[in-house]
Design a protein that fits this description.
This is beta-glucosidase. The protein is α/β, with parallel strands linked by helices and 146 residues long. The protein is built from four helices and five strands.
Amino acid sequence: MLGDRLPGFTAEELSVVRGSSSFFRLNTYTSELVEEGGSDELSGNVKTTFIRPDGSQLGTQAHVPWLQDCPSGFRAVLNYIWKTYSKPIFVTENGFAAKSDMVLPFPDVLRNVDRVKYFRGYTADLAAAIKPDGVPVKSYFAWSLL
């Protein structure tokens, strides 16, 4: 994406860096469908959407426009990382901003149906990535302000 605007590595630097990682750390919240043709270089010059070709949504819309729940995408990215890098995975951040967080009393926020659905789906697909898929996920941290 940035091509020749970034400095390259020397052969010596490449030999030091290549294969030096012992794990993969992942912060993830959602999945999107992607197609070429975007004009924002920072986003990789692609168009993203939460709408499937059949017109259905990928998941439940969160309070923020960039987030919908899509647990199958979480399982897919865990499998992709394992197959691509063959390193154990530490999920260091994952969560959902529910639409009602700003208006509900705190005890009701804890029982938020959309958030519960999100975490049930994501932890179920996390478990499926571990067994039967065999992805070595070593940790999972849900995002919180605590």
